Amino acid sequence: MTVKVLHMYPNMLDLYGDSGNMELLSYRLKMRGHGFEKTSYTIGDGAKTDFESYDLIYLGGGADFEQQLLAEDLLSCKDKILRAYKSGVFMLMICGGYQLMGKYYKDSNGKKIPGLGLFDYYTVASTNKRERCIGNIVIETDIGGKKYKVIGFENHGGMTENVKTPFGKVIFGNGNKFGSETEGYREKNVIATYLHGPLLSKNPKLADHILEYILSRKQGSPVSLKPLNDELESKAREVMFKRLLESGKNKK
Amino acid sequence: MFIINFFTILIGKILSGLLHLLGKNAGNLPGLVLCTMRKNALKAFKIDCPIIAVTGTNGKTSVTNFIAEMFRQTGAKIITNPEGNNLDTGITSLLLNHCTMGGKVKADYLILETDESHVPVVYSKLKLETLVVLNFFRDQLDRNGEVETLILKVSKFCETFGGNLILNGDDPNVARLGYANPKNPNVKYFSVDKYRYATDSLHEAGEGRFCPRCGTELAYDYYQYSHIGRFACPKCGYGKLKPYVKFTDIDLQKPSFTAEGEEYITAGSTIYYMYNLCAVYAAAKLYGIDKKTVRKVFKGFEVNNGRMEKFEYKGSVLTLNLAKNPVGANMTVRMINECEDNKEMLFVLNDNLADGHDVSWIWDINFSIFNNVTRVVTSGRRAYDIAVRIKCSGYPAEKIVVRPDLDDAVKELFSTKGRKFAVANYTAVQPTRSALKRFLNGEAKRNDS
Fold first, then answer.
1. Is A183 among the domain residues?
2. Best residue in A14, A16, A128 to probe B by mutation, most B CBs within 10 Å?
3. Given this structure, which CATH class describes domain B2-189+254-300?
4. Which of A158, A245, B94, B348 could bridge B380 with an S-S bond, Cβ 3.0-4.6 Å?
């Protein structure tokens, strides 16, 4: 099967290697003999884009300036994106992308950028630009009924409130706001998170979980992917877990 | 004021003297203490000679060393910070070591590598004659904030600066500084003509996509690397500038270039090396340094500080290069590719404070272009992260060897013969040099006995 991905605003939402998530999905599909087809969405493409025809909609993280520039364009696609989400298209959103799907984002200059309002959460950034949650982060989430540690790097000034169904429980780091218990937002076909790294690079089980959802939905029956040799990924995780979780510093 | 200045210098000298007595390198500490004690500590120095500052994301150390060497060859007395120490505190310490008790700094020229964000801090207090700006790229994002913030800081300084401004005319982020003070007649651009491996489209993450004057997307005739290339704004004409110095006939094989009708042989052979030399050439031209000296320095001088530094072991040549951000790393990968033989690569990745704790920038490195790389060894605190990154770009996992310990990594790398390249990020570069030297010395000793 060929997975069709809509990468929204890749020119503007591309901080901290977030485009790497696309490369990772492509890699993991290719290793299983599946195809990956990516379409880049840029400002003004709304009218010609059929959001529902994609299997995954992806938004990366961006700076305040870029978020402002694209907010209006994003709003003009609201109904179409809402339909895609309701029809089960998988939505993966990082940092700025996460914030823009909520009710609103009030940036560090006090400027309120309306979000798409797909979900009930909202985000307010401190007007002190130095007050940011920056650092390695480990959270615990659920994948197929099993607990799975997700590791990444957070760097955000926005504090996200009113998250009803978080992506995971924070084990190390901050999460949705300073010292938060929770991180990100999740539904069956939605993962929104502050984790850069990029997210899928050190969390291969999460990548496969997303791909299995997508392939199963496409095929109409459950697909289970054959495991890959993720030895390097496991070691990368091990090193960081050892450093972060066994040091006792910042531990929850 | 005199009294305050006197005491500032006195305290600094005492501190510096004490550290020497204790057998410690005076490095940064006296400057740090003075700058903390008194915000304007730099004003305590009396400097009559011209100050030349070099700033930009990549190449500062190399260009500073080259310019200093040019002047040294002319017999001038130079004070410079060849090892970095490029913040206000480092510069204060440097001047403290070279001044009289009265704060007088005696030299013919001060040539100072200066951190981008510290240009306004330092040169609001010291009178700057010439500012050389090389480029603006993404660098350690989690510490520096966005590139734009940094450019605006330097730009604001340029608004009231009337001295010589030597700017990279092929970097839209740098060339814009030439417009910051329309009254400054001393703006000079350097430019490098299209080289063999230039491309029609952007291959690596770049910063300056839009015209800084009118916001229109810039049009490029070609890209040399990252967003460096011949650009112009289709709407307002930004970028149509007349270079003060232009390198043509870039030949990376020889390696050589032509400037003002004369060919020069160089020691380094990459496009960014040529850009560095172009900045140096512009400074040399501005200060009337004769072409014989320029020729000699370009041909023979090497910075040898982990910047394109060469090592040799039993006929296997290794080139070590610092790469602390995606652009630097992409350039190094490209340089590795321009060597068409089979070769092996060592990548050392750390995530210490000075590197930025966030290593996600490695995903902005384009490894998919690898050719004839027969094996990759990775090392450093994040050896596995870089291994994962290279694997997922499509490079065969079985050709990747992870050796987090640097001595193990170097030993592994030299277990085979042939051409080698090593890439190390900021805090990794000196330990990598040390490990290489340990290995080469150890091996030499073993052969002697």
1. yes
2. A16
3. alpha beta
4. B348
C-beta atoms surrounding A103 within 10 Å: 16
pLDDT digits (tens, 9 = 90+) for B349-371: 999 887 888 999 999 999 988 88
Contact A23 B393 (CB under 8 A): yes
The class of domain B307-448 in CATH terms is alpha beta
Strand A35-41: give its sheet, edge to edge: A35-41, A2-8, A56-59, A90-94, A190-193, A185-187
Q: How far is A245 from chain B (nearest CA, A)?
A: 16
What domain range includes position A106? 2-245
* DSSP letter string, A17-61: TTTHHHHHHHHHHHTTT-EEEEEEE-TT-GGG--GGG-SEEEE--
Q: Contact A69/A107 with Cβ under 8 angstroms?
A: no
Greater confidence (B96 vs B443) lies with B96
Q: Active-site residue A95, yes or no? A: yes
Q: Can you tell me the mean pLDDT for B89-94?
A: 90
pTM for the structure as a whole: 0.79
Let me know if B429 is exposed, middle or buried by CB neighbors in 10 A (0-12, 13-18, 19+).
Answer: buried
Strand-pairing partners, residue A113, are: A105
Give the pLDDT confidence of B152-191 residue by residue, as tens digits.
999 999 999 999 999 999 999 999 999 999 999 999 999 9
What are the structure tokens assigned to B293, written together?
A: 């000296």
Question: What's the whole-number mean pLDDT along residues B334-347?
Answer: 91
Q: Known catalytic residue: A196? A: yes
Contact A138, A146 (CB under 8 A): no
